[in-house]
Amino acid sequence: MRTDFVLTLTGPDRIGIVDEVTGLLLRRGGNVETSRMARLGGEFAVLMLVSMPSDQLVSLEEGLGGMIAQGYKITATEARRTSGDSVTGWVPQWIEVDGADHEGIIHEVAHYLSGQGISIESADSESVPAPTSGSPLFSMTARVMVPPRLAATDWRAGLEEVAGRLNVDIRVSPVPEHRKA
Questions:
Q1: What is the pLDDT of residue 87?
Q2: Integer Cα distance of 129 and 136 in angstroms
Q3: Residue 45 within a domain
Q4: pTM of the model as a whole
């Protein structure tokens, strides 16, 4: 029998982290089904959905103990797969946000979406210096699921109001082909 779980790891960035974690999983028959990994500041963060034989979980825990001793924080949470019926008829949409960086952009966008009953499936953001001035520029992309009861113009108009308040550009479009999975 296989167990699905979400594995998170955070700790000091160094060469070989991904090799070490995926090697521990592979040697125990584990498979990484989905993952996100990023260097954030001087730390490295791993988030992955793993499927592996249930009888290998104790062995994996022992194997990860060495990384914990090196200062990494690791959690494993059993994934409870849902039947997909909960999103029947929901429409996937892609949101892009760009503008001058300032506090609260992610919160304001997320607050508006949650108030509409829109689910954020994934989101990525970054702040980079502008080429000429060096002022921080913010960008965010998000894949969201819109409930069938919302007409496209209803929730988009509110999102445009949020963009105006934040002084950012927000674009909504169908999910790009490479982001549909």
A1: 74
A2: 4
A3: yes
A4: 0.83
